[in-house]
């Protein structure tokens, strides 16, 4: 009995020591008692040094948490029990969160740095007048490929290139219904927000003929597979392509001319926010050109901050693969929230497509 | 096992190789200056330095350990009392019902436990964070402790208790000086099993974390979604070394005072 009590005491003492150490660490990370904000972001999507700088500048401590999908993020916010002050969802999720009344309207007078954002990225259909959201990063959906692993000269300026019989078992697709069905629609010249059953049927049929060329349909592992030369061609997002290229310089990225998806991740203030004022300060801080430039450099996606571009490596900014000019952008479409019914239809078609693979 | 032949030794070696190779592969690349696990460039400590510089990561490691220690301590206390109650219950029907309910919790998937806790906490208005994680960890550890302690209690002969009673022991004496020392190995086993369950639990924790509180498994998961960085390797390497150290320490302690864990009354 004595040993048991002694062991239990030891456990309690160790826990207490660790708690004390944690409190001390928390203090050194930011000023004790200062107000805090909680930022809920995608993993590896913000330069941690900037959080420290924000604390130094404003005295507000940042609690940083990460999520891995728009859906998981929305569930956590909807369930309550959390107090996220900033979240960074993609555009279609913002429409959905607006419908569910999960967002707090922004006070633009507290965000003077908004003037640095390229007007092209403001006032978009998913959030007219930027009432609820401020663009954070943007990018495209396209084809990453490794010319060294391909016989022949491909530039993937057309989706049609993917259907080339010579590319048997060479293409990997990202495991995401909107991207894959969207590619099918785009390759036929239709809108990737199509709700026309006939167009969707055509796209499904077209996709089914791609089956012999598809090697795999996977998630984030795409990046490593491309880096390790285990695959030659991948349907992916521009940021992931940038990740791949930072390790394997043989790789290239192209956005086909028929059109593709243009996406945005945006900063919003969820209804659960406890420190709305601090959240506005954080948004304003992130829009500062120097901060935005440093962040874009660290993350590797494209920034919508036009004044930050002047501070960045010109070689990167002039790279049409990451910063396509407006003419190309006009071919691109932003996802619209199609409603649960249509989304279910997309998902079902995608599932059927995946089943046809086997 | 009478006489291990060459073939058997070879097989054993192979099994251990397969079990440990991934871990050593991971640790090997934690010293890679190249930044990926594709090719080894040169030796560096930089990823280990990155672990220690990242205060958030260290706080998460501490949180994980605190939750594991406290939840297994609480679960052991509750579990031992529960096992005692089950064994010394007069009503046979109630007893077998309780035991089945306990076993159902062990086999039910973590995802369902996690989801139901999330619903419960939100319904009660409990803020997600340290408390919610601790409570749910206690909950899934209790059945394990019960299961570890129960066999010890069942194998204990009733005449031990009768003898103690004959010699004038009070109810309290019987519990603290006869029963508990006898089942001590079970209690320790239950505690350590609960500890390991809590340390590596992902599914339940994933649902009930929030408000800046996170444990290691959940954090590594969200880090890995964005591509494995070698910081994860370095951290895993450190944890592996600490675990090996703990196991060695446990054996050293065990050898020195055999009585501590074998439960022979001193």
Please give a handful of descriptors for the protein shown.
heterodimer, A: about 350 residues, alpha/beta, D-Maltodextrin-Binding Protein, domain 2, 2 domains, six-stranded mixed sheet, three-stranded parallel sheet, 14 helices, globular, B: about 270 residues, mainly alpha, MetI-like fold
Outline the structure in words.
The complex is a heterodimer of chains A (358) and B (266). In chain A, 42% of the residues lie in helices and 15% in strands. Chain A is α/β, with parallel strands linked by helices. Chain A has 2 domains: 30-137 and 264-317, D-Maltodextrin-Binding Protein, domain 2 (3-Layer(aba) Sandwich); 139-262 and 326-357, Periplasmic binding protein-like II (D-Maltodextrin-Binding Protein, domain 2, 3-Layer(aba) Sandwich), CATH 3.40.190. In chain A, strands 4, 5, 6, 7, 8 and 9 form a 6-stranded mixed β-sheet that branches. A 3-stranded parallel β-sheet of chain A has the order 2-1-3. Chain A is globular, with a radius of gyration of 23 Å. In chain A, 41% of the residues are buried. Chain B has a domain at 55-231: Orthogonal Bundle (MetI-like fold). Chain B has helices at residues 6-29, 46-53, 55-87, 92-107, 110-124, 130-155, 158-166, 171-200, 203-208, 216-225, 230-256, 258-262. In chain B, 30% of the residues are buried. The mean pLDDT of chain B is 83. The chains are: A alpha/beta (358), B mainly alpha (266). The A-B interface holds A 1, 3-4, 7-8, 11-12, 14-15, 18-19, 21-22, 25-26, 28-29, 38, 42-45, 48, 63-68, 76, 79-83, 220, 223-224, 227-228, 243, 247 and B 35-36, 38, 54-56, 58-59, 62-63, 65-66, 69-70, 72-73, 118, 121-122, 125-128, 132, 176-177, 180-181, 184, 187-188, 191, 210-212, 214, 219, 221-223, 225-229, 260.
Concise account of the structure shown:
The complex is a heterodimer of chains A (358) and B (266). With 358 residues, chain A is α/β, with parallel strands linked by helices. In chain A, 42% of the residues lie in helices and 15% in strands.
